[in-house]
Amino acid sequence: MASKLEEACLKDPKIRGHIVFYEFRSGLPIFQCYKNFCARMGPNSLDFPDFEFWWMRFSAGNFDLDYDRSQDPKCRTITDLPMHIIEKICEKLGKNYQKKYRFTLRNVCKSFRSLADSWVPKFENLAIEAFSNLFTLDFDGQYFQYSDENKALNDLKSVIAHPEHKLTNLDIGEITNQQFLDKLLLEMESLKLKIHIENVHLNSDNWKDQMRLLPFYQAETVKMVYIEGWQERNSEFIDEICKIDQEERAGDDQIEKIENPKPKSILFSRVEISFDFLSNKEATKIIKNFLKLPNLKYCHLKAELRNIVQLKKNIQRLGANIQTDRLDILHYPIQNSNDVFEIQIQLDGIRIKQKSVED
Amino acid sequence: MSSTEQGTSSAAPAEPTTAPESAAAPEVPESFYYVHGKDKVVHKVSAGALQHSALIHGMISNLGYTEEQAKANPFPFENIDGDILQMVVDWCNQHKGKPTPPEDTNLPKQKEKLFDLVLAVNYLEIKELLTYCCKQVAMMVKGKSPEEIREIWMIPTDAEDEAAEKEAKKRAGKEAAGETAAAAGDAK
Lengths: 359, 188
Fold this sequence. Notes:
The structure holds two protein chains of two kinds. Chain A has three domains: 4-71, no CATH class; 81-116, no CATH class; 117-356, no CATH class. Helix content of chain A is 42%, strand content 20%. Chain A has helices spanning 4-11, 13-24, 30-41, 48-59, 83-91, 97-100, 102-106, 110-118, 149-160, 178-190, 207-213, 231-250, 254-259, 280-290, 308-317, and strands at residues 125-130, 135-139, 142-146, 166-175, 196-203, 224-228, 270-274, 298-302, 321-322, 329-333, 339-346, 349-356. Chain A has a twelve-stranded mixed beta sheet with strand order 3-2-1-4-5-6-7-8-12-11-10-9. Chain B has ten helices and three strands; from the N terminus they run ααββαααβααααα. By secondary structure, chain B is mainly alpha-helical. Chain B is flat. A three-stranded mixed beta sheet of chain B has the order 2-1-3. Chain B has one domain: Potassium Channel Kv1.1, Chain A (2-Layer Sandwich), CATH 3.30.710.10. Chain B has helices at residues 7-11, 15-24, 47-50, 54-63, 67-72, 82-94, 111-124, 127-141, 146-152, 158-187; strands at 32-36, 42-46, 75-76. Classes of the chains: A alpha/beta, B mainly alpha. The interface between A and B is medium-sized, with 25 and 29 residues.
């Protein structure tokens, strides 16, 4: 064990240098010198980097034992710069640097991640796709592809969880990787996320996955829900939407209203559905379903219709009346309300609008 | 203090530009001030050149030094390395009374020096030079991937950073324990 004198010697950097010099003069390799030094002065008496520093100086022919290590030139890196300077440097990366470099910078290091995350995301459009080993995030036409699921989730979360972020369009594309969706939902739930979205784009191909995301949309910000896909799947999807609405209203007492003042169905108050083709039977069924939704303000079924005379008859059978001044328009009275649904049937589709009778 | 005056040499390039002006206009003696960095080497710089630095300009306006007082009291910038201060002084002299160009290609190419220069320029509040420096730092990584940026800007990965943090904490704990033990020994 090192004596008190030895300990005191080691505290003095100059004496430390002298002792290392003594070992250096032995001509042995550095590790052997360090071993001998530790044996003489006690283990852990001097860190190897300290020993190495002096040893390397001597081996380079520099025998200045008066050198004060506190004067070592400090190797600065960018992280030594104040944050406002780093922000200024980022500004010089060009116009729209916050959009272009957001994800690049947030994957550099912790401090850059904090900086990039502090920028209010200005992305208007987001499309998400998740395949087994490939995840694509499309922010305003900028494609970001990931093979690492966690990186993709992290970048996605950093944008959608930003309290000031406002999305105009959200498009949930193909999601074959259920694990990705499960993780995303879990994260959203833990963060109690409510995303500000104006236009929701749903594809009936994977409507079951998309339905799981609906509770995380801020219903009151949704201006329009666009639904696309095959007729059969669309019908199934619309049935499901209407079922949710019915379920919600069935148990819709006062307490529930306070706890959940914005029911999911409000999401579907303005809907545009595109069909490749729509049969009269299907069209009647869809209209019948939508007429049950008191929250529905506007619905546009875009489809090429063949026999609109028959379709009008079908709608009339549901309780709607053809307007005498406009033969393409029918009115359907809304239960417990003075308002009506105005149903306009034309060859290019059907429009349903909620209207006050006085209008 | 080793007051090796380098001012005459660094201020010299500015003289030819001022000479014809002084011939035409009534002669106004230019005042000079003195600055030194960590290395204590004193630089003589004209008030015109120092105008680039909002910090020094503010100091000059507030102090109202005479020529003798300025010489006797050089502005100390202990936080700026001598070579960096030299670079700043040279830049101020070169751009004295001139409109600053949109780009400056004479900045150091060495990363560490550039970061030091950024810090010094930020401290001295030289707006235009800071803009050039920031642009140069930004151009290093334009279009690069996170991995490349880490390499270019010498930034450790999160894992390396965490390991270094742990190591530093461990070392600090060890040192603190050693000091308390030593203090206890001294008390005995």
